[in-house]
What we know:
The chain is of the alpha+beta class and 184 residues long. It has one domain (26-182): Alpha-Beta Complex (tt1808, chain A), CATH 3.90.1570.30. It has helices at residues 25-37, 91-99, 139-148, 156-174, 179-182, and strands at residues 5-11, 18-22, 46-56, 59-70, 76-82, 108-112, 116-121, 126-132. A six-stranded mixed beta sheet has the order 3-4-5-6-7-8, sandwiched between helices. The protein has a two-stranded antiparallel ribbon with strand order 1-2. α2 crosses α4 (156-174). The chain is globular, with a radius of gyration of 16 Å. The chain starts with a strand and ends with a helix.
Amino acid sequence: xxxxxxxxxxxxxxxxxxxxxxxxxxxxxxxxxxxxxxxxxxxxxxxxxxxxxxxxxxxxxxxxxxxxxxxxxxxxxxxxxxxxxxxxxxxxxxxxxxxxxxxxxxxxxxxxxxxxxxxxxxxxxxxxxxxxxxxxxxxxxxxxxxxxxxxxxxxxxxxxxxxxxxxxxxxxxxxxxxxxxxxx
Length: 184
């Protein structure tokens, strides 16, 4: 299923600005609020809708990460990707996105459908925890865990591979049907 506009605006939890309501935006907002209010993540360490720009055979492309979690030195510690479907099927896409962040790869990634949550070590793509949504680690646990994770070193060859993977999964999620064919 693809994300569509709902024709009205809502207030963004992080910025307080009016943003377009979409079929997934309320879920993004709920995830963000839960991380801040229940898990202790500092609001100023969260960035929403971070775009990853990449190039495949001369074509400039971009994909959006729902949330990027920064440590106090403003380095990405973890990304959060909302999944509209089985969480296990989004792991590779989530890892590719975490590896392609603008500054350097995050060490952790979280894929969630708001019921299940898979915590992933980005360096090797290993699922560290496969639990319910409310068992997502706290801010302190996330920082401690990230310190135990090796860094993923992104060179040009790996960047080209990860870009193709991210593009393929992004396109599968966005363009598997047209509105005229399936009525979504």
